[in-house]
Known about the structure:
The chain is α/β, with parallel strands linked by helices. Helix content is 43%, strand content 17%.
Amino acid sequence: MPHATINNARLWYDRLGHGEPLLLHHGYTASRINWLAVAEELKQHYQVILMECRGTGESEDTAGGYNLEQYALDVLGLMDHLRIDQFSFAGHSMGGGIGFVLGAYHLNRLNRLILMAPIPSKGVGMGNAAMLDARVQQRRQNNRAAIRQNYLDTRFRPEVETDDWIESRVDHIMRVSDGHLIEGAKAMAEINLTEKLADITIPTLMLAGSVDGLLTANLEDFKRLPNAALQVFSRAGHEVAIHEPLGVSDAIHTFMQHGALSAKDLYKRA
């Protein structure tokens, strides 16, 4: 698999298919694996670019740079490396936070923006501090059983949240760098781009799961986006692309072809 040195970090990436470029970015303690089933569908229509941010997957554990602004610059640096000026971006969870940063400060590089169960534009708050502390201790103690149990306790789609998938999630959490785990969590807590959402005028798609604790925040952010479409999956939690890979790929493909349409747009035709 190819790597590229971007902003002094050796980052993993891959390209699948041909056509209009579409970059898929993973979430906080994830990797390309969470997007793979969707990428396999979308590569029939687009040049799908997968990447793993610094401190995760097969990318380098750097000394610093674990914040949303740097992750966004790494996205742009990779696209510069690939000589792609404009592209569409899809981000899950923390990747959606990267999408907010790209939309707020680098809108000229984007054709479309896809936010899948993104972190809230106003930040996730510090209510997760105790959870982060527990996770740090579990990693230091190599307590895979406790991490595994967290996923077993909240599993409701066993046909896709298989034992192997849960074991893979444990692997991911154990693998990410301390810098990404700790500083990345801080960055997600401190993001504050709600007032910038009105400036994201490109077509935007909000994908959400009705069983996700972030659903309310996702709906609030959707209403602030001036040119957005919404799709909520009734049997999906936070891992939307795992729970509904075909539904997600179909929603993204439809959006890529037709853009966003709202009732306000229809009323303007009358």
